[in-house]
Amino acid sequence: MPRTVDDLLREARALLDRVTPEQASAELEDGALLIDVRTDAQRATHGVIPGAIAIGLNVLEWRLDPASEWRIPQATGHDVRAIVCCQQGYSSSLAAARLQSLGLYRATDVIGGFEAWRDAGLPVDPIEP
Question: Which of 95, 123, 98 is nearest to 21 (CA)?
Fold first, then answer.
């Protein structure tokens, strides 16, 4: 029987030590990378998390793989703490599991995504027009 997206999500989350928005905020202050994989439209509509790095899902692995010529400067090694955040915490789980399969063994995601971050009263900035 073919697998479903729910199967993929369950398998991905079994690999992750997921964090609450509050934990992600504290780790961001301690130097973790908070990776916002939401679309430009979502960020424009809902705002951004101060200090988060916006990276599209279509280039995520290339930007965070320390061996990639297209990596961001912060992708310094496989031990980098990368916390992925999407709108509701679904695609971020799949993305974090992909990062772990790439060797970024400390990758995880935010439970509930941006919506949980905002609902927890954590900082959100509007996008400048």
Answer: 123
